[in-house]
Amino acid sequence: MPKKLLLPEDARRFLARRYANQHQNWLAQEGAWPLTYSLGAPTENQVAEDTRAVRAWVDAWVGWRGPGNVSWTERRWARLGQQLLPAGLVFSSPLEVATVFGQGSRWQRAVERYEHLAKRWPVLASGSGLARHFEVLADYPALDFQRLVSLLAWLEQNPASGVYLRQLPVEGLDTKWLETRTGVVTGLLRLLRDDTGTGDFYSLCGLRRPPYRVRIRLLCPELRQAVGGLRDIEAPVDELQSLPIQPAGVVIVENLETGIALPDLVGVVAVMKLGNAVSVLDALPWLQRTKAVYWGDIDTHGFAILGRARRVLPGLKSVLMDRETLLAYRPLWVQEKAQHSSAELPLLNDAERVVYDGLRGHLWGPNVRLEQERLPLVMATRAVADALGLC
User: Which long-range contacts (CB under 8 A, 24 or more apart) does 349-353 make?
Assistant: First the structure.
């Protein structure tokens, strides 16, 4: 068959790609209609050379039953005489395009919900912001969509309620449901308020932020006596501020298991499992006045957390995150699922940057990672004590 002659399966593939690229714009009522898909135009020579293939092409379009309508053109040729040939497949609406590959009901549901929201909140109809939530409009079960509408209505009427998320008096609202949809709610609420700021979910919704809890272990018997003998403490950060302690050293460990495993160290407090929330360290006055070290996994995210911690603790030292430690425990390496995206971490020192760059550049292998828990605890404890000047 001549290459330029397109069959129904070619049309379906093309329309699926066009729909994937344009459905949000179409939902926002952008784009020109009707949409015509050209089916090709054989020459007289091509028809004469491969009459059977051209006839099969014509028959395929004679049998097209929609959606969309086939347009036809008449050709008059010297040798072959008058011929009626398919010219294009014409669609009057996005619904027809979606129906070609089984997406018609999904499209219709998205349109109905788009119109429902735009009627209730006309500001949503300006621009393409609402259309970018196409999957929400098309795929949310009816009950979930109603929950979303009810929640937006309540938040719009109560912009500064100051209640906790679990206290929201919205019918049918489930806390876990909302916790997995904060991005959707934030995005839609920004559209409703024409808010282009950088506030997070809690500030935008006017909700009270749950207190951030920090877990620490007092590795020193004397420090434990000052707090009634408690060793393992988890509390809101503002309550930990007032602990009547002044440690001689603090070790910040990336993972909970590492902190739990650490033995007693005179004068030392371990801060555990902060991850990317290490900025809360700035709120602990007894930590600001003492030596502190950071011990994390030797992977790109471990160094990224170290860099964040240095923003609030400029004198923070790293321990067991060097090239020598990495290479000494090669048999214990695993792979980091996805590396940190930053090409540079400006607060790393030269030695740390060498390791970070080597990890990102796959110098020692793809996505190399050495988890801190894998290191021998006796050796690691000695290294921490030495870094804190306790040996």
Answer: 351/322, 351/323, 352/303, 352/306, 352/318, 352/321, 352/322
H-run or E-run covering 334: strand 334-335
Name the pLDDT band for 46 (thresholds 50, 70, 90).
confident
Q: Which CATH number applies to 213-387?
A: 3.40.1360
Please measure the distance between the N-terminal and C-terminal CA atoms of the chain and give it in whole angstroms.
83
Cα(256)–Cα(213) distance, integer angstroms:
14
- What is the full DSSP assignment across 74-98? EEEETTTEEEEEEEEEEESSHHHHH
Orientation of helix 142-157 relative to helix 104-120, angle to 10°: 20
pLDDT tens for residues 283-303? Answer: 899 998 899 999 999 999 999
Parallel, antiparallel, or unpaired for β 69-77 and 213-218? unpaired
**Mind listing the pLDDT tens digit for each residue in 91-101?**
999 999 999 99
- On the CB side of 38, CA atoms within 13 Å amount to 4
Residue type, 86: P
Q: CA-to-CA distance for 323 and 342, rounded, in angstroms?
A: 20
Q: Write the pLDDT tens digit of every residue in 137-153.
A: 999 999 999 999 999 99
Assign residue 132 a region (left: φ > 0; alpha: ψ between -120 and 50; beta: otherwise). alpha
Based on its alpha-carbon atoms, the radius of gyration of the chain, rounded to whole angstroms, reads: 32
Domain boundaries, the chain: 8-100, 104-205, 213-387
Q: What are phi and psi of 43, to 5 degrees?
A: -85, 165
Residues 348-366, mean pLDDT to the nearest whole number: 97
> Which residues touch 383 (CB under 8 Å, ≥6 apart)?
319, 320
Alpha carbons 381 and 45: distance in angstroms, whole number: 85
d(CA 283, CA 268): 18
Strands 213-218 and 35-38: unpaired
